[in-house]
Design goal:
The complex is a heterodimer of chains A (304) and B (129). Chain A is α/β, with parallel strands linked by helices. Chain A is built from 11 helices and 8 strands. The chains are: A alpha/beta (304), B alpha/beta (129).
Chain lengths: 304, 129
């Protein structure tokens, strides 16, 4: 845990800055990003990864802030990756998850990184997986991923995290919403935050009924919290820490195989783009479907 | 091209959010990734600037200039290559103190376009004077 000891912190930010800069390099993508992730994956995985997802404004950041003292007690140090959306118009982003954080618990034992989605679909950023691997290799024992505010299907965090909490609010939806595919089919714990709002009991019943239909032996628990005044937080942490009693790095092999697949996909796309730019790609006038098949056949023939 | 990242922090205890929120929006619309941290101590500003690996630190300064000057010193000593600019209700003599430390300063009446131009220049996106 060379990056998080007080001694390192006291005499400078060098190690910390190097870690932050490797996450920036991973965010920039390309061969350097893959090389950094490869190096990170050579370390045996030791980190636990906990995800928080849910619609915009449900209170994901506030909940993480409220749980942080418990997480620090349990793990000693915590890294947080918080994703917010990039504008599809300008590429800019307002990354506001830090605003909800209570900095009294921030010291050398908390690493917090805001990430813009940069056009990536799935509720996280393209670099989130690689960043988890980098933080794991740097010795952070718990990595928390906060997704951007999701709709119903942006659930890629489920592939990265050991366990995921879904954060909703009273009044979030009726029985049809609760039984739709997507959000309520996945997730290991469900949190009804802002529990002081009207409609808590109804939301709880609908959610529990929907979760009982899942093909699991025990349905995921439903918890009520008010993140801003701490209500329900100890109970939620107790449940999450029980859920997190999985071997550390359990998901690393999954993250590794996703990394390999993503690397292969990126290479394939690059090769195909190069082919498209070459004279060999010039297509005769045909119907689109035949043209596409023909184009692919010529691409594969050329690669043989 | 990878978007440039800017940290927006408020020094001291001033609770006026409108100014930095409008500036953050303008920078966002100009294509920057703006990390809002809100009111923060010197140590929190430095830690955020390092963890977030920003290309530029923006300080919203209201009230005590001494607190702001300490934050500037701390960022400059932790990350000497990280540029800083400042804005807010800053009196003329305090502007001079900040400028003496190498900051571009935007007191009341500054134009958003000038702030965006400055951000572009300080992050190396433009070389215009």
């Amino acid at each position: 845990m060379s990056d998080v000891t007080s001694a390192d912190w006291a005499d400078g930010f060098t190690a910390r800055r190097a870690l932050a800069k490797s996450i920036s390099a991973v965010e920039s993508g390309g061969p350097e990003a893959l090389a950094i992730e490869q190096r990170a994956l050579q370390q045996p995985a030791a980190a636990h990864v906990l995800g928080f997802t849910g619609p915009p404004g449900a209170g994901k950041s506030s909940l993480i802030s409220a749980l942080l003292p418990h997480a620090l007690d349990h793990y000693g140090a915590v890294a947080i990756l918080a994703v917010d959306p990039s504008s599809s118009l300008t590429g800019g982003a307002l990354l506001g998850d830090r605003v909800r954080m209570d900095y009294r618990h921030f010291d050398q034992k908390v690493f917090f990184r805001s990430m813009a989605s940069r056009g990536y679909q799935g509720g996280i950023a393209a670099a989130t997986r690689a960043s988890v691997n980098v933080l794991d290799a740097a010795g952070w024992p718990l990595v928390i991923i906060e997704t951007l505010g999701i709709g119903q299907v942006e659930l890629e965090v489920m592939d990265l995290a050991d366990r995921v909490a879904v954060v909703l609010n009273p009044g979030w939806g009726d029985s049809f919403q609760a039984n739709k595919a997507g959000l309520t089919e996945q997730g290991d714990a469900f949190v009804l935050n802002k529990a002081d709002r009207p409609g808590l009991e109804n939301a709880k019943i609908l959610l529990e009924q929907s979760l009982q239909c899942l093909p699991t032996a025990t349905p995921p628990g439903v918890f009520s919290t008010i993140a801003t005044d701490g209500e329900g937080i100890p109970e939620l942490w107790q449940a999450l820490s029980n859920l997190m009693q999985v071997p550390a790095g359990e998901q690393q092999s999954r993250r590794r195989s996703v990394a390999i697949m993503e690397g292969a996909k990126a290479q394939l796309l690059q090769d195909f783009d190069e082919f498209l730019a070459s004279p060999a790609a010039a297509s005769p006038e045909t119907a689109p479907s035949e043209g596409a098949v023909d184009l692919l056949q010529r691409f594969y023939r050329q690669r043989d | 091209m990878k978007p440039k990242r800017i940290l927006m922090a408020k020094t001291g205890l001033d609770g006026h959010w409108r100014g930095p929120t409008i500036v953050a929006r303008a920078l966002r619309d100009a294509g920057f990734e703006v990390i809002m941290i809100g009111m923060a101590t010197t140590a929190e500003i430095v830690a955020a600037a390092i963890d977030e690996d920003v290309d530029l630190v923006g300080l919203n300064i209201g009230g005590h200039i001494d607190v702001a000057l300490r934050a500037v010193d701390a960022v400059q000593s932790a990350a000497p290559d990280m540029p800083i600019f400042a804005g807010g209700t800053i009196p003329p003599h305090a502007c001079k103190q900040l400028e003496a430390k190498g900051l571009e300063v935007f007191p009341p009446g500054s134009m958003l376009t000038d702030i965006v131009d400055s951000a572009n220049r300080l992050t190396g996106l433009s070389t215009a004077p």
